[in-house]
Amino acid sequence: MELWYTEQHTPFVGFSIKVERQLYSEKSKFQRIDIFESKEFGRFLTLDGLMMVTQKDEFIYHDMIVHVAMATNPSVKNVLVIGAGDGGTVRELTRYNTISNIDMVEIDEQVVNVCKRYLPQTACGFDDKRVNLYFEDGLKFVRSKCGEYDLIIVDSTDPFGPGEGLFTKEFYGNCHNALKDKGILVNQHESPYYEYNANAMKRAHRGIKSFFPICMVYQAHIPTYPSGHWLFGIASKQLDPIKDANLDAWEKLNLNTKYYNTKLHKGCFALPTYVIDMLKEKAE
Amino acid sequence: MGAVLSQKDAPLFEALNKYRGNRIVPFDVPGHKQGKGNKELMDFLGEKCLSVDVNSMKPLDNLARPVGVIKQAQQLAAEAFGSKGSFFSVNGTTAAVQAMILYACKSGDKIIMPRNVHISAINALILSGAAPVYVNPGVDKKLGISLGMPIDEVIGAIEKNSDAKAVFINNPTYYGVCSNIKKIVSAAHRHGMLVLADEAHGTHFYFGEGLPPPAMACGADMSSVSMHKTGGSLTQSSVLLFGEGVNEGYLRQVLGLCQTTSASYLLLSSLDIARRNLALTGKGIFSKVAAIAKYARDEINKIGGYYAYSEELIDNNAVCNFDTTKLSVYTRDIGLAGIEVYDLLRDEYGIQIEFGDIGNILAIISVGDSELAIERLISALYEIKRLYSKDKSGMFDHEYITPTVELTPKGAFYSNKRSVPLKSAVGSICGEFVMSYPPGIPILAPGERITPEIIEYILYAKDKGCVITGMEDMTVQNINIAEV
Fold first, then answer.
1. Does the annotation mark A155 as catalytic?
2. Quick check: B362 and B415 in contact, CB under 8 A?
3. ipTM more than 0.85?
4. Which positions 345-364 of B are in contact with A (Cβ < 8 Å)?
5. I need a labelling partner for B60 at 20 to 30 A (CA). Which of A107, A191, B41, B88 fits?
């Protein structure tokens, strides 16, 4: 018997992983949640059939969504995380003793519960005393906040389901308002490669740019995401993630990271020409 | 026709499915022949859709002379809505409203109606030659919206014009306001008048709980219901309901004057399917809709500056009931006209709402909405207040202007007309319609005296970005006046 998981990266491209067994499959109020076990990538979580996180390559995503911002401003104390039900982002944040509070807002409580049970590799930071979990719509949570956070991380799904509201101008405007003067916004920024991700990426970039004077994009290689070439956005009211980065202070923290390092901090902002051009274009 | 049908059936839908399965060879219209003759259209709309875009034929019945599946579907709709009978309209509620008025009134007959009726009703006056007796709607001074008909004024108009043939009622208005329809019905019936309801925005009253009473349950003789607005059928499909005292055959003839003989089966089947869905699950759907609307109102009122209004408007006179599924928001206190907020939502946030007028916006919440989408609207309103609010002084503050009717709409519309610049028309009698669309309620109707404040209002609305329609001159510089 052969059992394969396939995600359609486009109507004409499929990405498949051989599955040993399916550990979980349920429909929550918001989406379908599945956990699979595989030889190549270990356990992995999919939402509505789309790849979210695998045991083998999650370190790349979580390193890059957290440490670039933390090295830009190592004195971040109050953090808001939106989405991130698998827990990997919170796990990385809890490694910083300097952080005093982490509010995490995930719309689907069932994702957190499933990950606690099946993916303890990522879902291991939720019990940290500094972490407060809120199960509600991120868009709703953030609109009533004003000048509270040093860092907001938007670790969302693609903008084609419950995550749609997290790619909108109203959301970025509300985030801007929820950040302090030196605040930083980081978001998963989709991929430039396939048209359908690229449009989401352009829309996100245009939306963020209309609120933040500093608005940059960096990249990482994530093997299980469409095309493998993935982008992150970092935006700020004052701090430039390259010029103002405090890399020495970050080095002194002595955190072991498997993907991120301070050389890569500078390098990851060097984008391919077509991506630079695309970021200048208007979204369709 | 065999077995007794229940609300679980959808005879028209089932007949179309059967037709599709039978692979009939079409040598009739439409000429695209199940899509084969228009590949681009087929790619766009899909084969499933085009394969049932067919003409009336034996097993599919005929809208103009319903004896088979259309008759059954109409009967099921009548049962679902609690009326004696129903006709499907494929020319929208506009055709249904026109049929009601043409049925009730011949040339010269009087009809009592609020002035804030939809254009389709006044259009029917032009077609029929009926003479309107307007009841001035109540006006909410702060919100600048016209309300329902104050009950004493309607009864006064009925007694003063006891020769009138019908009373026409909005149930509810675009903003969700209902008049005291029960009292109006009993007064009208005492004087032998028919009661005609425009329930373009009232489909859900027939299926939800805790909503204002639907017209047919209050004894109205006919009602035009836009299934497509909140009920889930395709745009342009509506239902005309009628009660005991109505001559069914004559009403069918009159409706035939108002609509096409090539009725679209896409529209007809959408009515059948939507009716079944509402009859079986409407209660749950509309309690969810009402809950979403209430949540949105509470959240919007927390922002400050906006006022999302609801049942507190009820004064048992001009507002006898309020449709709580409506999300109407007063915006002028943040210094923005409703139409300006409407434009910002569309242009900056990609959110399309139903309309914005001078002081308000209106969002339609319906069978198709979710909690997540409403969060986007609320958040965008936060942002608009934060980024765009202005000083509110100098904003126009009235919406309803009492008209002086000098000629019947038909008399004025068919008179010798002259086109003059807007500003020099003051004092003349208007020969055409002027309105903002939506909501499609005429600012001026043919036959009404043009006053300086009306001209000021038109220019202000135009300046704020309202789409002014109805006039021959689409640039809204010249207006047709009736030469008397």
1. yes
2. no
3. no
4. 348-350
5. B41
